[in-house]
């Protein structure tokens, strides 16, 4: 009797129920963690401004059948310190959102003395994932640069189709793997089982949930972006009127202000998108654990056997 009832249970019946929409939780995460988000935004915009002062990288182009491939000269090993510098404020932003969603600890409370160790564990895991993706991108960029540059030196405009195809497939596979492990950093906040093996098992249970929800909220995010840039149009229009003959006629300070305003506006939209993804990942963590704990052959089997013994 118990076995029959167990077989009739609907799929994913253990999934937790959420009272609010994802955008509602994302807005709360954005609002209650605003000081952390502001610091992260200005840190990343400042880093981007510093990098832009080095000037554009050298670029080579090759074309085939109307398709043009532009390859930038690799930055070399300096790209890894840059990736680390960007990851630290980004990790602080994501950690504060996850902590608010999972523990109800907003803003500075998420970085209290009791929770400080969890943040550094979260940061270490984020760095591992970011540096792994960075290393792969640098490898393929370097390979393409060497191949294309040598071809141009020899007078060849041939597009390295096979290298491009393998690079695209490889990076896509890495992104899929990243989705499978996306709950690994945030699992340190929940405590309990937070190993990479557990995260991979959890990712297999929630892969389509995370991908589907991320795609589902894209229209709403595009509307928010449109509203944000529409509100800033009068300011940008006022700055454009100061252009003469295609060149900005302002002082160097006004040019910096123009650059910072544009980047900060885009950064605010990006920060809200991070809050949305943070809410989705937090829910994916809870749903994945519920599905693992309720999967056949594990806790469900134990419950059935115990109920059978009682009967």
Portion of residues in beta strands equals: 5-15%
Distance between the termini: 10 Å
Q: How many domains comprise the coordinates?
A: 1
- How many beta-strand runs? 4
Report the principal-axis shape.
globular
Helix content: over 70%
Keywords: Membrane, Transmembrane, Transmembrane helix
Protein name: Glycerophosphoryl diester phosphodiesterase membrane domain-containing protein
Transmembrane segments: 30-55, 75-97, 118-141, 161-186, 207-236, 256-276
What report would you give on this structure?
Keywords: Membrane, Transmembrane, Transmembrane helix. The chain crosses the membrane at residues 30-55, 75-97, 118-141, 161-186, 207-236, 256-276. This is Glycerophosphoryl diester phosphodiesterase membrane domain-containing protein. The protein has 311 residues and is mainly α. The relative contact order is 0.13. It has eleven helices and four strands, in the order H-H-H-E-E-H-H-H-H-H-H-E-E-H-H. Mean pLDDT is 76; it is low at 296-311. Strand 3 and strand 4 (247-248) form a beta hairpin. The protein has helices spanning 2-7, 22-32, 34-52, 79-103, 116-153, 161-180, 183-190, 196-216, 218-240, 252-293, 299-310; strands at residues 59-64, 67-72, 243-244, 247-248. Helix content is 72%, strand content 5%. It has one domain (2-310). The protein is globular, with a radius of gyration of 24 Å. The strands form two sheets. It has a two-stranded antiparallel sheet with strand order 1-2. It has a two-stranded antiparallel ribbon with strand order 3-4.
